């Protein structure tokens, strides 16, 4: 397993221990792995992983909806885990 | 996640279902009349009230050292005095930035309710509230832009939540507003009284505290009434626990927003995100949060919502 998305997957697993695996197309919002109050934490983690500030107000929730969309929008679409 | 209750601050409610407040109450009306009269008699022109010097001294604290996110930890001791003062500058900009974003969110929610069915009683005071909050947002934004050159952006883009019971939504909206104001007020009181700080900084916090004392008195009574109406409408033990969890999460998230990696970065501290994580788990910081939140947790306990933070 490559490490690029690993911190994000680890963060999600830590907060949602009922999920052994997080499929790349699982809707993180719909399934409440990330809720409104946890979202700021999630954004700060993602900024740390990608190494830049994200213009949050210009983004859509859909860009964070699954691991696939996160990878596509913030990591250039290259699967690395 | 810990709660089944959703933050509805990002949702446009188009169904017209916000009307279930039913907050007619003689004592509440008398309080509102008093607060509205005081808001009128204490009114000031914020655009001419403040002295805005061209710059603030870079070699002084802009934020009380005891309020800094590193206070009470070894991380504060590891910073050189000049770096600690730099952190106080950026954490003051972060504090006022949080105010700008918090005020925008609360204005949207109050604006959606003023003069709608169910909110007839507080609508007169809502006008004072919205007017004053707009002015607070202006002076906080002015501080950030004039002395920090930026407003730290909000990271609060949240997932849209399904509409829920309007009684519960009303209660949660005004509970969030009250808790936000109580947290800010803790800082305002301390900063206004700190004679190490520049007079403009003290003035900003003193005036904000004066206005907010009215808003907090209003909010505490309104939240209590909305909670009583929610209970009367039927709220089982599971729902009560969910409300309690949600508010505990809200308070924790609010305190966490004081630990901004961007402020650490502007201070010259490397790996601010990791520092944030270490600080949030530090016992001295947890104890500091309890002190900041005491008025809020005492209030919630008093109206029957004990929290497990």
TrEMBL record, chain A:
Residues 1-78 form the Carrier domain. Gene3D superfamilies: ACP-like. Coiled coil: none annotated. It comes from the Bacteria. This is Acetyl xylan esterase. It comes from Protofrankia coriariae.
């Amino acid at each position: 397993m490559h490490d690029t998305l690993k911190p994000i997957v680890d963060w999600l697993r830590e907060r949602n221990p009922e999920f052994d695996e997080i499929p790349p197309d699982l809707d993180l919002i719909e399934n409440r792995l990330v809720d409104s109050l946890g979202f700021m934490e999630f954004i700060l983690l993602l900024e740390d992983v990608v190494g830049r500030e994200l213009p949050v107000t210009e983004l859509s929730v859909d860009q964070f909806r699954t691991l696939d969309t996160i990878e596509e929008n913030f990591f250039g679409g290259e699967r690395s885990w | 996640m810990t709660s089944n209750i959703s933050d509805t601050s990002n949702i446009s409610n188009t169904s017209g279902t916000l009307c279930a407040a039913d907050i007619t109450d003689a004592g509440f009306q008398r309080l509102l009349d008093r607060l509205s009269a005081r808001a009128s008699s204490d009114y000031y022109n914020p655009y001419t009230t403040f002295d805005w010097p061209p710059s603030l001294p870079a070699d002084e604290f802009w934020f009380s050292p005891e309020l800094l996110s590193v206070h009470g930890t070894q991380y504060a001791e590891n910073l050189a005095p000049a770096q600690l003062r730099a952190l106080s500058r950026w954490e003051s900009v972060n504090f006022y930035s949080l105010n700008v974003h918090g005020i925008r969110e609360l204005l949207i929610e109050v604006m959606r309710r003023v003069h709608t069915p169910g909110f007839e009683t507080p609508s007169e005071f809502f006008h004072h509230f919205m007017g004053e909050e707009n002015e607070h947002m202006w002076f906080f934004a002015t501080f950030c832009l004039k002395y920090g050159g930026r407003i730290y952006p909000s990271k609060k883009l949240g997932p849209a939540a399904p509409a829920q019971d309007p009684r519960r939504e009303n209660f949660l909206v005004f509970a969030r507003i009250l808790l936000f104001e109580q947290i800010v007020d803790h800082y305002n009181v301390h900063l206004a009284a700190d004679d190490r700080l520049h007079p403009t900084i003290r003035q900003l916090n003193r005036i904000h505290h004066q206005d907010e004392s009215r808003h907090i008195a209003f909010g505490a009574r309104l939240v209590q009434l909305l909670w009583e109406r929610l209970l009367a409408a039927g709220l089982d033990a599971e729902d009560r626990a969910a409300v309690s969890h949600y508010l505990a999460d809200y308070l924790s998230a609010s305190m966490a927003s004081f630990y901004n990696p961007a402020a650490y970065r502007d201070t010259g501290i490397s790996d601010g995100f990791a520092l944030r994580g270490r600080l949030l788990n530090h016992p001295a910081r947890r104890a500091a949060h309890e002190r900041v939140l005491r008025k809020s947790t005492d209030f919630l306990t008093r109206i029957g919502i004990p929290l497990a933070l």
